Amino acid sequence: MRLLGLDPGLQRTGWGVIDLEGSRLRHVANGVIVSSSRLQIGERLVQLHRGLLEVLTEFAPDEAAVEQTFVNKNPESTLKLGLARGVVLLAPALGGLSVTEYAPNRVKKSVVGAGHADKKQVQLMVSKLLPGAHLENADAADALAVAICHAHFTKAYIKGKVPGVKTPRNLAGTGMHRAIAAALAREPAR
C-alpha cells in the first residue's frame, strides 16, 4: 500500500511517500511544494494545487494523511494556512483517495514515542525508520512522519487493534477480510 503524508503550509507544503509492505516501511520520495509570496493568494493556491497534482500523478498513492494545523495568534496567518490546508485536503480527495487527518501530537507520539518531541527528534526517527531516505527539509520530514503515523494506524486498524474502531462491516466475513487476516498471520513477528 502506498501512502502519502502531507504537512500543509502556504509557503511550504511538505510531502512524503512511503510504501507499507506487510509490517515494513519503505521510503519512496519526499519533497516540498513552495509557493511564491510575491503572488496573489489565489495564484499561490493554484501553485500548491498543481504541485500536489504532480506528486499524486507521479507516485500514485493509495491513501493520504494530513497533519492537522494549529491556530496561530495572527488571524490573517491562520486564515491563509486554512486556505492552503483546504487545497491539501481537496487535491487527494478529488483523486478518489481516502484522506485522514492526524493531530501533531499523535504524529510525534507514533513516530518518536513522545507527543511533545521537537523537530530534530522527529527527523532523527524518520531517518531511522526509513533508512537511506534523504530528507529534503523539516517540512518533508514532517510529511514522512505523517505517512509513518498513518501506516501504524492502518496496520492496527486492519488487525482490529485501534481502540473503539472495528474492521469495516463491509469486510467482515468476506473473502477480503479472510485474505487480510491470513496475510497478517503469515507476517513474521518483529
Description:
33% of the residues are buried. With 190 residues, this protein is of the alpha/beta class. It has a five-stranded mixed sheet with strand order 3-2-1-4-5. It folds into two domains: 2-158, 2-Layer Sandwich (Nucleotidyltransferase, domain 5), CATH 3.30.420; 160-190, no CATH class. It has six helices and five strands, in the order βββαβαβαααα. Mean pLDDT is 85; it is low at 162-177. A hairpin with a 2-residue loop joins β2 and β3 (24-34). α1 runs parallel beside α2.
Report the radius of gyration as a whole number of Å: 17 Å
Shape: globular
What spatial order of strands do you see in the largest sheet?
Answer: 3-2-1-4-5
Whole-number tally of structural domains: 2
- Give start-end ranges of low-pLDDT stretches: 162-177
Classified in CATH, the superfamily of the largest domain is Ribonuclease H-like superfamily/Ribonuclease H
What is the beta-strand fraction? Answer: 15-25%
Mean pLDDT: 85
Summarize the structure.
By secondary structure, this protein is α/β, with parallel strands linked by helices. The protein has 6 helices and 5 strands.
Name the descriptors.
190 residues; alpha/beta; 5-stranded mixed β-sheet
Q: How would you summarize the topology of this molecule?
A:
Layout: E1 2-7, E2 12-21, E3 24-34, H1 41-59, E4 63-67, H2 75-94, E5 98-102, H3 104-111, H4 119-129, H5 138-158, H6 175-186
Parallel strand pairs: 1-4, 4-5
Antiparallel strand pairs: 1-2, 2-3
Helix pairs in contact: 1-2, 3-5, 4-5
